[in-house]
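BUG: 3D viewer hangs when loading the predicted structure for this chain

Environment: internal workstation, default settings.
Expected: structure renders.
Actual: progress bar stalls at 90%.

Input used:
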Amino acid sequence: MEILKVLVLLLFFTLESCIILQNLQPMFHIVPFSVLLIYFISLAYISKTCPVYVVDFTCFKPPNCLRVPFTAYIENARMLDFFDDKSVSFISKILHLSGLGEQTYFPPGLFYMPPKSGHKEAINEVHMILFSVFENLLSKTNISPQDIDILIVNCSGFCPNPSLSSIIVNKYALKEGVKSYTISGMGCSANSLAVDMARNIMCTHDNSNAVILSTEILSTGWYPGRERPFMILNCIFRVGGAAILLSNKKEAKRHAKYKLLWTLRTQGAFDDKGYYSAYRDEDSSGITGVRLNGDVLQVAGDTLQTHMPVLGGRFLPLIEKLRFVRSVLMYKRSKEIYIPNFRRAFQHFCFPATGKSVVRETAKRLKLGDRDMEAALMTLHRFGNQSSASLWYELAYLEGKERVKEGDKVWQLGMGTGPKCNSVVMECIRPILGEALIGPWADTINAYPLTIP
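Structure tokens produced before the viewer hung:
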């Protein structure tokens, strides 16, 4: 779109220059001005079509009985036969370096000795999380299951048969014509992908309500082995889930929280280094798990590097774009690329709460400060890494602090295995007050922010 704008303006000035140089009659000026007028009318029409609103969302708050303090985690690890002293020492180190706090949660199956990670425990976890957030969303938005036209459920590692979306359709008797989808294998970028998918579907289906359910089922993702690259996910992933209601109905604008402005997806799976940086595989003993290698941070940064120019071209002010272009042209001399000031485009940032180091690496690449990182770091501390649902816990944190004002733009960034980098940009369209009393942060919002070294 940005390139098209430049080409249209270039065409306009070229035609005008030719007319002036040729001393043609004034009537010939009608041609370039007509081209310009038609273009901007078409642009205005395109931008007004298919408005999609984020009506509201809810996040799962696990019961206190599922809390897993570090001391309990480490003590239980010592009692498991498949962990030796070196494994327990590594687990303790990761816990204390991860940025997680003492109030994160595990699913019930992982409290057994040894942990139960079978199909039954996974299904129970699905029921506990998805049923809860779905019912809370229906109650909060005052809609019926029969009002839902599109259902998208995302969970990266657990793919039962019938599918997760079918479980919801069956449980709540959604209407026969509902369009239901289940997304798997997309990691922490899955929710942003689901929003993009819902937006595209709704562009061809007017007067529709779409519900997105996001979670990561841990019961089947537990790795009972000793190889360190596989053990990291045991330490940082925690229970969580979110439900989001999108609508393109005209009346939705009156009570929706946000208007969906844009979605963007960047794929990096063509590069082997990125593709294998996070990979489900078997260890040397034949035990299945997700292996993370030392390239994860660099891969995340490199993927983001290719994602930023496209996003910036859409939302950054002209002066920031010109500074960026100038730095690219002068790169051979200065050896530096200008990082635009994204605070001039967005007021709030929701980063993937993958781990403290990933959050800070992302902020470093974007030249953002502690205040911009706060929502991601506090979500990581309070709830742990909840995969793609973390972005909505972060937005709930910002709402709970009453920082999101009418007219503010929110940038949600999802980064997942593959690697993939997905963005969702929303604009707040009404005042948001009182969320601290009803959201997942209701009992702890006043204790944050904390200083995380």
